[in-house]
Amino acid sequence: MVEKGALYVCPTPIGNLADITLRVLDTLKQVDFIAAEDTRHSRKLLAHYKIKTLLISYHEHNERQRAAELIARLQQGQSGALISDAGMPGISDPGSVLIRQCIEKGIKIDVLPGPNAALTALVLSGMPTDSFLYLGFLPSKKKERQKILAEIAELPYTIILYEAPHRLQRTLQDILEVLGDREVAVARELTKLHQTVHRGAASDLLAEFEQTPAKGECCLLIAPAKGQEQVLKNQATDWLRDLEKLEAEGVTGKEALRLVAQKYGIGKNAIYKAKLEQKKNTK
After folding, report:
1. For 7-111, CATH number?
2. Between 3.30.950.10, 3.40.50.150, 3.30.310.80, 1.20.810.10, what CATH number should domain 117-225 receive?
3. Would 198 disulfide with which of 104, 186, 223, 259, CB 3.0-4.6 Å?
């Protein structure tokens, strides 16, 4: 049961409509209103689950003005839910202004667990998860992007970024210029039919996306300043194991290289370099 005068922050699916909790669905049905980032987008989700609760537009362009209206509703005893187009409201989406004002006014807030693209991509990337830094979207201007990258260059944390597909190449180029050829991962279309994860050195992924531009929203992960070489070595063990298995089955070297690169979503150059390094160490 929802409480009168309370705000419920409800995560919504980041791609697959089935990725919504029973608790979120019950809450969206019971509250008096739902504040949504894009009411047209949210109506599709609500219609899918036969939810007819009042929708109120709440986005980055009307956030401060609309927050006051929503606060008034809550103070009058109405219960409300806050949702964004996808994932957890307030994480690179509208929500923080309303949440902060609720705290200042003494209004109860409950955050329900659910989907989040950043954490999903982090675990899927295979990079260290014990400590990480989420930066959201980098600035649109090159100088400002590179300034931020320079500031985090020595941090021993996995870095998580969001990036639009048409800006992915420029960001990979900046990473290459500022951080060097560090290990990165790009997770695309998370939870959807064409979900893919591309892993490898920044130069390999840059070459890959220059040849075949990315589609769909992307999560970009950068290996920690300390330990990225070990991450590469750990992954290289899997690459070379699969490569040897395919070659033992009679697959040609070139084709085996292509298949392994496709399986792990990395550039063939990275696997080839690992193979050369292996030969060098076994001499």
Report:
1. 3.40.1010.10
2. 3.30.950.10
3. 186
